[in-house]
C-alpha cells in the first residue's frame, strides 16, 4: 500500500503538468478561433460592405446594371451573386436556414432591380452572417458540411471561402465603379498622404 501510494503521489505532478499543457493548448485554440472569427467579421461588415455601399451611392440605377458585354457581369448581378453565396455557404449550413439559391439566376437577371432592394437584401444577409459567426466556438469551426456539392467542408473553410470570394467580387465592383465614374474611390488615400481613408 505504501509503495502504491508513493508511486501515485510521485506521478501526480506529471499529471498536473499534462493538464496544464492541455489547458494551454485549449486556450491557444480558443485564441486562434477568436482571432479568425474577429478578422472574418470585420472584413465583411467594416471593410468590404461599406466600400460596396459607397460604390452603390456613386452610381445611377442604370450604371449599376451596366455591362460592357454579355461575357461580363453588372454590379447588380454581382450583388445578387454575393448574397446567394453567403446564404448558401454560411446561413444555410451554419445557420440552419433552407437553401433556396438559384446561382444561374444571379447572373441571368436583367430586370434591373432597384439599388435599394439589392442593398437591403445583402445588408440583411450580412447581419445574419455576423450573428452566426459571433456564436461559433473552436469546435464549431471543425464541423463538416456538404455545400454546393462539395463534401466534408469545415465551417472554417466555408468562412474562409466566403471572405475571399467576397473580396474578389469587391474588386470587380470597385473597377466598374471607377470605370463609370472616372474618379478614384479613395479607399487607400491615407497611404499616399491624401487624407483619411474612406470606409
Secondary-structure map with pairings?
Blueprint: H1 2-58, H2 61-64, H3 75-91, H4 103-108, H5 115-134, H6 138-141, E1 144-147, E2 150-154, H7 155-181
Antiparallel strand pairs: 1-2
What can you tell me about this protein's structure?
Strand 1 (144-147) and strand 2 form a beta hairpin. The radius of gyration is 24 Å and the shape is globular. It has a two-stranded antiparallel ribbon with strand order 1-2. Helix 1 packs antiparallel against helix 5, helix 1 runs parallel beside helix 7 (155-181) and helix 3 runs parallel beside helix 5 (115-134). It has a single domain, classed as dinb family like domain (Four Helix Bundle (Hemerythrin (Met), subunit A), Up-down Bundle), CATH 1.20.120.450. Helix content is 68%, strand content 5%. It contains seven helices and two strands, in the order ααααααββα. With 199 residues, it is mainly alpha-helical.
Low-confidence stretches: 1-9
Main sheet overview: 2 strands, antiparallel
CA-atom Rg in angstroms: 24 Å
Q: Structural class of the helices, strands and pairings? A: mainly alpha
Strand content: under 5%
For the secondary structure, the number of strands is 2
Number of helices: 7
Average pLDDT, rounded to a whole number, is 89
The termini sit apart by 71 Å
CATH superfamily: dinb family like domain
Tell me the CATH topology: Four Helix Bundle (Hemerythrin (Met), subunit A)
The first-level CATH class is given as: Mainly Alpha
How are helices and strands ordered from N to C? HHHHHHEEH
The tally of structural domains comes to: 1
Shape type: globular
Q: CATH architecture, please?
A: Up-down Bundle
Give helix % range: 55-70%
Tell me the strand order in the biggest sheet: 1-2
Amino acid at each position: 500500500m505504501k509503495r502504491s501510494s508513493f508511486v501515485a503521489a510521485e506521478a501526480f505532478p506529471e499529471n498536473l503538468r499534462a493538464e496544464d499543457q492541455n489547458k494551454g493548448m485549449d486556450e491557444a485554440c480558443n485564441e486562434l478561433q477568436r482571432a479568425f472569427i474577429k478578422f472574418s467579421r470585420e472584413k465583411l461588415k467594416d471593410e468590404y460592405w461599406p466600400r460596396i455601399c459607397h460604390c452603390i451611392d456613386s452610381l445611377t440605377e442604370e450604371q449599376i446594371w451596366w455591362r460592357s458585354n454579355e461575357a461580363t457581369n453588372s454590379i447588380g448581378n454581382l450583388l445578387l451573386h454575393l448574397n446567394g453565396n453567403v446564404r448558401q455557404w454560411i446561413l444555410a449550413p451554419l445557420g440552419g436556414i433552407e437553401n433556396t439559391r438559384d446561382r444561374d439566376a444571379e447572373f441571368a437577371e436583367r430586370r434591373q432591380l432597384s439599388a435599394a432592394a439589392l442593398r437591403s437584401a445583402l445588408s440583411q444577409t450580412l447581419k445574419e452572417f455576423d450573428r452566426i459567426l459571433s456564436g461559433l466556438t473552436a469546435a464549431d469551426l471543425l464541423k463538416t458540411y456538404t455545400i454546393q456539392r462539395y463534401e466534408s467542408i469545415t465551417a472554417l473553410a466555408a468562412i474562409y471561402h466566403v471572405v475571399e470570394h467576397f473580396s474578389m467580387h469587391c474588386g470587380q465592383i470597385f473597377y466598374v465603379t471607377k470605370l463609370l465614374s472616372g474618379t478614384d474611390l479613395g479607399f487607400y488615400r491615407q497611404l499616399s498622404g491624401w487624407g483619411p481613408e474612406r470606409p
